[in-house]
């Protein structure tokens, strides 16, 4: 069974850094792109970017380029999403998801809620 | 960037009724690269349809997708109590991939 298990909820202050994770199992982790999707409270889903864990080839949506870093450690089948300096506007649920041969997502993590508040 | 507009915003129906959800794109979606997802409260989205009309693994055949170009439709032939949720369309024909704002299907 394909599973993506994300790290737990985080509460941070503005200006702090954060790295959340997404561990894949039940499939060949290095053979599929992993994407990150943001869902702000009551808003639509937003594709942030994707990474190919085998060679760490990474693509970002323009509005997220330079705002976050997506990385992966294929030795432990884990992808990451990180911020160097959080803002209140980063408060959202973040999902990782496995991308199929085309950029749609067939398996999703349970989500990581990130709350940024002073 | 392709903007997807879903309608209606909310659909109030009873179990057993037919649901028809619309997704309209601001420009033509290449090769009908459009997917539909279902999201229940507190859960991650679940892939229902890809390629505009292909059902994902394990999805019941009461769910069907159709359309091309700029107009796409998700139809649920007979609503099951477990189907009530928010539904999102997503285009992946042109980067950046974008999602619609969602249609909520609620119990009448």
Features:
heterodimer; A: 118 residues; mainly beta; seven-stranded mixed beta sheet; four-stranded antiparallel beta sheet; B: 108 residues
Task: Give the gist of this structure.
Chain A has 118 residues and is mostly beta strands. Chain A has strands at 3-6, 10-12, 18-25, 34-39, 45-52, 57-60, 69-73, 78-83, 92-99, 105-108, 112-116.
What can you tell me about this protein's structure?
The complex is a heterodimer of chains A (118) and B (108). Chain A has strands spanning 3-6, 10-12, 18-25, 34-39, 45-52, 57-60, 69-73, 78-83, 92-99, 105-108, 112-116. With 118 residues, chain A is an all-beta fold. In chain A, the strands form two sheets. In chain A, strands 2, 4, 5, 6, 9, 10 and 11 form a seven-stranded mixed sheet that branches. Chain A has a four-stranded antiparallel sheet with strand order 1-3-8-7, with no helix packed on it. Chain A is globular and about 40 Å long. Chain A starts with a strand and ends with a strand. Chain B has 108 residues and is an all-beta fold. In chain B, the strands form two sheets. In chain B, strands 2, 4, 5, 6, 9, 10 and 11 form a seven-stranded mixed sheet that branches. Chain B has a four-stranded antiparallel sheet with strand order 1-3-8-7, with no helix packed on it. The A-B interface holds A 43-47, 59, 61-63, 95, 97, 100, 102-111 and B 33, 35, 37, 43-47, 50-51, 56-57, 88, 90, 92, 95-102.
Give the low-confidence spans of chain A.
Answer: none
Counting DSSP H or I runs of 4 or more residues, the number of helices of chain A is 0
Low-confidence stretches of chain B: none
The dominant shape of chain B is globular
Strand coverage percent of chain B: over 45%
> What's the β-strand tally of chain A?
11
Overall pLDDT score of chain B: 96
Radius of gyration computed on alpha carbons of chain A: 13 Å
Beta-strand percentage range of chain A: over 45%
The interface involving the most residues is between: A-B, 22 and 23 residues
**What is the molecular shape of chain A?**
globular
Mean pLDDT reading of chain A: 96
- The DSSP helix count of chain B reads 0
Number of strands of chain B: 11
User: What is the N-to-C succession of helices and strands of chain A?
Assistant: EEEEEEEEEEE
End-to-end separation of chain B:
35 Å
- Termini separation of chain A: 40 Å
What is the string of SSEs of chain B from the N terminus onward?
EEEEEEEEEEE
């Amino acid at each position: 069974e394909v599973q993506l298990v994300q790290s737990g909820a985080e509460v941070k202050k503005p200006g702090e850094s954060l790295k959340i994770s997404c561990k894949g199992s039940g499939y060949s982790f290095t053979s599929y792109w992993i994407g990150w999707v943001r869902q702000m409270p009551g808003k639509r889903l937003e594709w942030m970017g994707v990474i190919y864990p085998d060679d760490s080839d990474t693509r970002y949506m323009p509005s997220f380029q330079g705002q976050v870093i997506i990385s992966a450690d294929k030795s432990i089948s884990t992808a990451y999403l990180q911020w160097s300096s959080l803002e209140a506007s980063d408060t959202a649920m973040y999902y990782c998801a496995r991308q199929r041969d085309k950029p749609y997502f067939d398996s999703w993590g349970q989500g990581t809620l990130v709350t940024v508040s002073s | 960037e392709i903007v997807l507009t879903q309608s209606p915003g909310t659909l109030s129906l009873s179990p057993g009724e037919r649901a028809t959800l619309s997704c309209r794109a601001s420009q033509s979606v290449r090769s009908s690269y459009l997917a539909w997802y279902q999201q229940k409260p507190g859960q991650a989205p679940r892939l229902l349809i890809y390629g505009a009309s292909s059902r994902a693994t394990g999805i019941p055949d009461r769910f069907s997708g159709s359309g091309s170009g700029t107009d796409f439709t998700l139809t649920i032939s007979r609503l099951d109590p477990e189907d009530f949720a928010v539904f999102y369309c997503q285009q992946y024909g042109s980067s950046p991939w974008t999602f619609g704002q969602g249609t909520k299907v609620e119990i009448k």
